[in-house]
């Protein structure tokens, strides 16, 4: 496998697929994330679309100094302690949805009955979203992801994403106002307290917080859902591994790391050269993009022996599924914890669970299932 190869595409100058090269690109400050300045060259009408105006100017789509400011505030309130404190809520949501799967009778759709509602409820608890709204946000997040999945050139897809972004912005601005008046034990209340305390280094406007909540929910929900679904599919496809996890739930962390390595929720990232540079023998002019293939990097035979084998007993597993460097996913620990808690419980609750005929989505960015029928 080549670490980096030139691309014939006029915009994407190179494709990075090696593990070491991927690490290097994601840590290199000469490679930028898409932001307002960068997008102006390829999409001069971006300010006419709520999809773009919402995403541009968030942690995911910004570079220093804005990225530094956003990340500093989120890192201050989204701590390891907060993930630990969420564990009772995570277990409660897992058990509640396992009960619903049992009540459904002999068969159910794991996506609808578990993989969607559990992460949705967890991020709802995290952000202070009222429980009655937990089912309202995911469909709008899906529309934004549809546009992010290299479909933003389709006018209908972009129109749906614009509407979803506008609705989510209105919702989060109202949530911020409510939690400012009646704060709770959630990260939005904590951010508002930090911001209103007047510390210049933490100052963000309500609009900036709301935009970042859109991508925070996206990162916490839209990636954990496929991790649970893809993970269950891979485990149930190998009955001996399912039996081992039932008998030894303490092995769950190794299973989750291998799921993240074997089939990461996000398959690729885009980075843009800030200047003319040479990387891995490929000349990359300023403003040109490199496609960073996380899925390929995780299966680099130079990093992992027999990389196309799903093996939860691997050691020294450090998947790049959450990125690395300044844009490393803040929710990585939470997603891992959800997987570690959820997957053994599913198998223990339903020891004879079997896969039905799945319906696969057509997403290049986040490959998973539209439906994952299971017999319980």
Write the layout of secondary structure elements.
Blueprint: E1 4-6, E2 12-16, H1 19-27, E3 31-32, H2 36-42, H3 50-55, H4 66-77, H5 80-103, E4 107-109, H6 110-115, H7 117-127, H8 137-148, H9 155-181, H10 187-196, H11 206-221, H12 224-236, H13 239-247, H14 252-262, E5 268-273, E6 277-279, E7 282-284, E8 289-293, H15 294-297, H16 332-349, E9 354-355, E10 359-360, E11 369-371, E12 373-375
Parallel strand pairs: 2-8
Antiparallel strand pairs: 1-2, 3-5, 4-12, 5-8, 6-7, 9-12, 10-11
Helix pairs in contact: 4-10, 5-7, 5-16, 7-11, 8-9, 8-11, 9-10, 9-11, 12-14, 12-16, 13-16, 14-16
Describe this structure in words.
With about 375 residues, the protein is of the alpha+beta class. It is about 50% helix and about 10% strand. The protein is built from 16 helices and 12 strands. It has helices at about 20-25, 35-40, 50-55, 65-75, 80-105, 110-115, 115-125, 135-150, 155-180, 185-195, 205-220, 225-235, 240-245, 250-260, 295, 330-350; strands spanning about 5, 10-15, 30, 105-110, 270-275, 275-280, 280-285, 290-295, 355, 360, 370, 375. The strands form 4 sheets. The chain has a 5-stranded mixed beta sheet. Strand 6 (about 275-280) and strand 7 form a beta hairpin. Helix 12 runs parallel beside helix 16 (about 330-350) and helix 13 packs across helix 16 (about 330-350). It is globular, with a radius of gyration of 21 Å. The protein starts with a strand and ends with a strand.
Give the amount of beta strand, in percent.
5-15%
Give the ordered list of helices and strands: EEHEHHHHEHHHHHHHHHEEEEHHEEEE
Biggest sheet layout: 5 strands, mixed
User: How do the strands of the widest beta sheet line up side by side?
Assistant: 1-2-8-5-3
Distance between the termini: 41 Å
Number of beta strands: 12
Determine the number of helices (DSSP H or I, runs of at least 4 residues): 16
Radius of gyration: 21 Å
């Amino acid at each position: 496998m080549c670490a980096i190869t030139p691309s014939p595409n006029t915009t994407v100058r190179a494709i990075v697929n090696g593990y070491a090269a991927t690490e290097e690109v994601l840590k290199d400050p000469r490679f930028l994330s898409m932001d307002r300045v960068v997008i102006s060259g390829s999409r001069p009408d971006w300010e006419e679309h709520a999809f773009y105006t919402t995403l541009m100017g968030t942690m995911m789509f910004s570079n220093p100094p804005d990225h530094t400011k956003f990340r500093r505030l989120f890192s201050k309130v989204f701590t390891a302690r907060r993930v630990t404190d969420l564990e009772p809520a995570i277990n409660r949501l897992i058990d509640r949805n396992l009960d619903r799967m049992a009540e459904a009778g002999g068969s159910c759709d794991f996506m609808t009955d578990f993989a969607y509602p559990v992460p949705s409820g967890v991020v709802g608890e995290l952000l202070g979203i009222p429980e009655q709204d937990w089912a309202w946000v995911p469909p709008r997040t899906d529309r934004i992801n549809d546009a992010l999945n290299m479909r933003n050139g389709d006018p209908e897809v972009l129109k749906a994403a614009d509407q979803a972004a506008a609705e989510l912005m209105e919702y989060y601005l109202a949530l911020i106002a409510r939690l400012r008046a009646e704060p709770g034990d959630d990260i939005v209340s904590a951010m508002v307290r930090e911001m209103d305390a007047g510390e210049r280094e933490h100052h963000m406007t309500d609009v900036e917080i709301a935009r970042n909540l859109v991508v925070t929910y996206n990162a916490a929900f839209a990636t954990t859902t496929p991790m649970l679904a893809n993970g269950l599919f891979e485990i149930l496809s190998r009955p001996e591994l399912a039996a081992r996890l039932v008998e030894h739930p303490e092995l769950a962390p190794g299973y989750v790391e291998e799921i993240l390595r074997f089939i990461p929720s996000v398959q690729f990232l885009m980075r843009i050269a800030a200047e003319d540079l040479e990387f891995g023998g490929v000349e990359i002019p300023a403003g040109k993009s490199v496609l960073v293939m996380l899925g390929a990097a995780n299966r680099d035979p130079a990093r992992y022996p027999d990389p196309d084998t799903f093996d939860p007993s691997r050691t020294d597993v450090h998947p790049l599924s959450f990125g690395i460097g300044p844009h490393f996913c803040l929710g990585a620990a939470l997603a891992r914890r959800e997987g570690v808690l959820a997957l053994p419980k599913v198998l223990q609750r339903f020891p004879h669970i079997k896969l039905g005929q799945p319906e696969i989505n057509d997403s290049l960015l986040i490959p998973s299932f539209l439906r994952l029928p299971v017999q319980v």
